[in-house]
Design brief:
Layout: H1 10-17, E1 25-29, E2 33-40, E3 43-51, H2 56-62, E4 100-103, E5 113-121, E6 127-136, E7 141-150, E8 155-164, E9 170-182, E10 189-193, E11 205-209, E12 214-218, E13 232-237, E14 247-253, E15 259-265, E16 271-277, E17 284-286, E18 291-293, E19 297-302, H3 306-321, E20 332-334, H4 336-339, H5 345-358, E21 362-365, H6 400-410, E22 414-419, E23 423-425, H7 429-433, E24 454-456, H8 462-478, E25 482-487, H9 509-527, E26 532-535, E27 553-555, H10 562-572, E28 581-586, H11 599-606, E29 610-614, H12 622-644, E30 646-651, E31 658-664, E32 670-677, E33 700-706, E34 721-724, H13 725-730, E35 743-750
The structure holds (2R,3S,4R,5S)-2-(hydroxymethyl)piperidine-3,4,5-triol (DGJ).
(2R,3S,4R,5S)-2-(hydroxymethyl)piperidine-3,4,5-triol is lined by residues 336, 366-367, 383, 418, 488, 490, 536, 538-539, 555, 558.
Length: 751
């Protein structure tokens, strides 16, 4: 019998102080939640995850005892910390489910993990880091499971390391990062997730999870992983949660490759959530003596609805995950929709002048600046040539990126450019020199995407990474004023397999590819920590927290129509804070939908994220320019609250003809409310008073409409008047939306 471990952390210490007996258990405490573990029968189980409980004694006393009602009855599923395939004993029979499925070196298919050691290890202040070492009952096959609880934001990060000390390779048929069985939680469950596509990312869907059902969703491919769905999930427990009510579990998988999330409710009401890299196309082969670290999963709990889940994850992102999460993001103009491939240096200088006049801070040159001679990327060849050749096209830009960066500097702007480092065009110098550097299968012809011109480089191959690093490093070095890089990715894996990996390891490709991309990102980020990166993949295809460990923001969607963005940004906001969400004001008619929306509306929607522009400023009338200048001034003032504040979603666009959300700064002295009308109807849906949230009930706030069209009537009868936080939350604000796509932005300042 193993020695019983006495683990002393926060709550457990309290128990000891009271002289209670502590068996082998531990409480991971955050501000408002507790995750409680206990050891039973050699397994680590979760006794509780949810509202805060101060003592281990209470958790141990009330812990759900799966066998108490007998086998095959309600709750007969052990809430193990890492469920494995074949572990009979977890359920009343073979555990067919489980996030880890291993074929051991001798061919055995089941894995029975047993507790070896449990310890808390030193980590950053404000965290408690529990490490569980588990080993298969029979084989020298080790799993180290980490749970790192972050006090201030109620988030627990978890990840897994697997070590194979067996005499031969093992095959990981499933290797989820998170495979948690929950103690019986409730009798009604709803799963919210975000299917999407190009131009329509992050569309919210909520589905009921009945007994015996599984909700299973995942990435579409291994590059644009957030297309198809987003690597995140919310589970409402015991009834459908709203923004402000209900018990909710929320989690994000930090992975930019192929992934899958499964929420499983078994026939006896056991819940198991698995999230991890997707191995459904083939087992990952882990050679003898090797180990693998699986991606992180970060999760949180709220007893007060989905809004709190979002705020917890946003705070975690800003404080723990993003590279410079506390920094304010610049207002930029990206050249894409204003110029596409058709530009000269003069065009770009004009754009710089324009964005400077509007009050912007950064100019970003998008696609079309690289490749030489026959491979020059220009208006003639458009997107069909040049990827992989990361050198300036001198015919188009004689003074190069350096010249452009100086031109920006002269105007008081920072400078950035676009790259697509994971891709190569078949018509490029790189492909000519290294046709074997692209992903594919030995016996099949290579498929090409984006006008049949480009494919994906084999990032499992270190030589490929080295080549691209050297090319990018030369660019970064050449342009000392570089402040920002837009990292794009415009095709999926249309061929599976790596010419670099041998036959036995082909199925490792998808995972190794993503690790290879991270390797390059990490090198660049270490060498150039102050060059921001935007994660783009034909829009929001790289909206995930794996990439956002290295990137500061993502391009939310190629669909820049403000009406569409109300929905897309609403979906993205479930897990991604405003500072990560690039939102650009573009021209009308909109290039994706043809819709003509008022300039004010376009600004009002963009101002709720990381605002920027994607148009040629010369196309703006004098009135529009004046409006833009005033909007930029307003945005600069509200930027700290929008980008760093707490988000409260007030009225969902899915529920009617308008939407509203607000941000409140940490001190609760400043707030910004956005109200966006959709298509109006006289007989319904004029906004009823919009009840605010997140304010200090005891404070008085002056409410001022900002970003107003000159001479237009205000949207609120109490403009520039003062009201108490309690009243603003209880009675709400009356807002008059007078036509289709009318909108208002209100600034609240505590007096
Ligand atoms: C797709 C991106 O989403 C766009 O913003 C733009 O950068 C193009 N690629 C350029 O090819």
């Amino acid at each position: 019998m193993k020695k019983i471990l006495l683990l002393l952390v926060a709550g457990a210490a309290l128990v000891v102080a009271h002289g209670e007996e502590v068996r082998d258990g531990i409480l991971l405490q955050t501000k408002s939640t507790t995750m409680a573990f206990r050891q039973e029968g050699g397994r680590w189980l979760v006794s509780h995850y949810g509202e805060k409980i101060p003592t281990l004694r209470d958790v141990q006393t009330l812990a759900w005892r799966p066998r108490y009602l007998g086998e095959n009855h309600l709750g007969y599923r052990l809430p193990v910390t890492y469920a494995t395939y074949g572990d009979t004993g977890v359920t009343a029979g073979l555990n067919k489910h489980g996030g880890l499925a291993v074929q051991h070196a001798d061919g055995t298919l089941s894995t029975y993990l047993r507790a070896v050691k449990a310890e808390t290890v030193a980590d950053a202040p404000g965290t408690t880091h529990l490490v569980l070492t588990l080993k298969d009952e029979v084989y020298p096959f080790y799993v180290t499971q980490h749970f790192r609880a972050i006090e201030s934001c109620d988030v627990v990060e978890t990840w897994v390391e697997i070590k194979n000390d067996e005499p031969g390779a093992v095959r990981l048929t499933r290797m989820a990062s998170f495979a948690l069985g929950f103690p019986t939680l409730g009798d009604e469950f709803h799963v919210q997730h975000q299917p999407g596509q190009w131009g329509g990312e992050s569309q919210l869907v909520e589905t009921t999870l009945e007994r015996g059902e599984t909700v299973d969703f995942g990435s579409r491919g291994g590059v644009r992983d957030a297309w198809g769905n987003n690597a995140s999930v919310m589970l409402s427990i015991g009834g459908k949660a709203t923004e402000t009510t209900g018990r909710v579990f929320g989690g994000v998988l930090c992975w930019s490759g192929m992934w899958g999330i499964t929420v499983y409710r078994d026939q006896v009401d056991g819940i198991e959530i698995c999230a991890g890299a997707d191995t459904s196309a083939g087992a990952y082969v882990l050679d003898a003596g090797r180990s693998i670290k699986l991606p992180k999963f970060a999760f949180t709990y709220s007893a007060a609805g989905k809004g709190q889940i979002s705020r917890n994850v946003h705070k975690w992102a800003r404080e723990w995950q993003l590279p410079n999460g506390k920094a304010l993001r610049p207002i930029l103009l990206n050249s894409w929709e204003g110029a596409y491939f058709t530009f000269t240096e003069q065009t770009l200088h004009d754009m710089m002048d324009g964005v400077k006049t509007m009050g912007g801070e950064l100019f970003v040159l998008d696609d079309g600046w690289f490749g030489r001679g026959k491979y020059a990327r220009d208006e003639k060849n458009q997107a069909t040539v040049g990827l992989g050749d990361w050198t300036i096209n001198p015919a188009k830009l004689p003074n190069g990126l350096v010249g452009l960066s100086h031109a920006a500097k002269q105007r008081g702007l920072d400078f950035g450019f676009w790259v697509e480092p994971e891709m190569v065009c078949r018509r490029s110098e790189l492909f000519e020199a290294h046709p074997d550097w692209v992903i594919g299968e030995r016996t099949r012809k290579t498929n090409f995407g984006r006008a049949k011109s480009q494919t994906v480089l084999d990032y499992a191959n270190p030589a490929v990474r080295e080549n691209i690093y050297n090319q990018l490093n030369a660019l970064y070095k050449d342009v000392p004023l570089l402040r920002y890089v837009k990292w794009d990715a415009n095709v999926d894996m249309m061929n599976v397999g790596s010419p670099y990996l041998d036959a036995a390891h082909q199925a490792n490709f998808a995972f190794d590819y993503t690790m290879g991309v991270y390797d390059l990102l990490a090198r660049l980020r270490t060498a150039y920590p102050n060059v921001d990166i935007q994660a783009c993949a034909s829009g929001g295809g790289r909206c995930d927290y794996g990439f956002l460990k290295y990137a500061d923001e993502f391009w939310t969607s190629d669909d820049t129509d403000a009406r569409e963005r109300v929905f897309i940004q609403w979906g993205a906001s479930q897990f991604y804070p405003a500072c990560t969400m690039a939102a650009h004001v573009t021209a009308v008619p909109n290039h994706q939908t043809g819709r003509v929306l008022p300039l004010k509306y376009r600004f009002d929607v963009a101002m709720s994220g990381r605002m920027g522009f994607e148009l040629h400023p010369k196309d703006l009338s004098a009135d529009d320019l004046a409006f833009a200048q005033q909007a930029v001034t307003d945005y600069k003032r509200i930027r700290p609250t929008v980008q760093q504040g707490d988000l409260y979603r007030l009225v969902s666009p899915y529920d009617g003809n308008y939407a509203s959300l607000m941000y409140v700064n940490e001190a609760k002295t400043h707030a910004v409310v956005f109200v966006w009308g959709l298509v109006r109807s006289v007989s319904r849906d004029y906004p009823s008073p919009i009840r605010l949230q997140g304010l200090d009930p005891a404070k008085a706030y002056r409410v001022k409409e900002i970003n107003r069209v000159p001479k237009a009537r205000t949207h609120i009868p109490m403009n520039d008047k003062v009201a108490g936080g309690a009243a603003l939350q209880a009675m709400g604000l009356q807002v008059a939306l007078r036509s289709d796509y009318d909108s208002a932005v209100l600034e609240l300042t505590a007096e």
